[in-house]
Amino acid sequence: MTLTARELVHRIAEDSGLSYREIVHRLNSRMAQGHGLLVSVHSVAEECGLDPDKYTLNPLRIVDRIREILNADHARTLMISAVLAQMIESPDGSTLPLPAFFAFVDILSGLEGQACLRRTPPTNVEGATTEVIELCTTLVSLICDWSSTGVAGVSRDCPDELRELAKTVLRKTRMYQAGLWTCLSCGRITSLKESRSVLCPGCADEEFQGDSPPTDEMSEGRHRTGYGQFLSSDE
Ligand SMILES: [Zn+2]
Q: Is 62 helix (H, G, I), strand (E, B) or coil?
C-alpha cells in the first residue's frame, strides 16, 4: 500500500516511464497554483495516460501507520520525538515542516498507555524517524488546505475522524506565525522568543537539570532532504 507522497511519485514515474524529477516538477507546478496534493497527483497521472484512481492516498491509513510505528517501541518513540524537536529548533528550519511536527505531537499525545520500556536497545531509529516524517508531511498535505504562506484551512476532503487533528495543526501553525508557541510539556502558551527547546522557560529549566544532551545517534535522522508541502526533486 502506498502511504507517502514520495512512494506515490515513484509509482507514477515507474508506470509512466518518466523520471522521478520530472513527475515532481509537474506536481510542484500544480501545487504552486494552489491545487491540493491529490488533485495534482491525479492530474499528473492522467496527463501521463495513467488511471488516476490507482494513485491515491488514504489519510486514515497514514494515521494508523504512524500510530503503529509509535506504539511498537516506546524507547524508540522517545528518540524520534527528540530528533523531530531538534529539527524544529534548527535554524534553517527546512528539514521538517511545522504543520507536520504539530500533527506528530497531536497523534503522539493521543496514544493510549505506552508499552513498557524494553530492555533491548531500540532498532532502526533512523529508518523509523524518516518514515514518521514522511508520513506526517504527507498527512498534513492531505488534510489541510495550503496557500503560498503555508496551511490555510482544513481540506474539504479531510475525513471527519481527522478534522480535529487538522484544526489543531492549523491553530498551532497560526499561533506560531503570530510568534506564539505551545509548550510541549505543560501545554502553556509562551512567546517564541521565550520558549527554549520546544518548552516554556519553566519546563525547560526542569528538563535541563536532569537530562543529558541528545547523542549523535539520535540526531542522525535530521540529515535528510526535507520536503513539505512541495516535494523535493532530489532523490
Ligand atoms: Zn511548559
A: helix
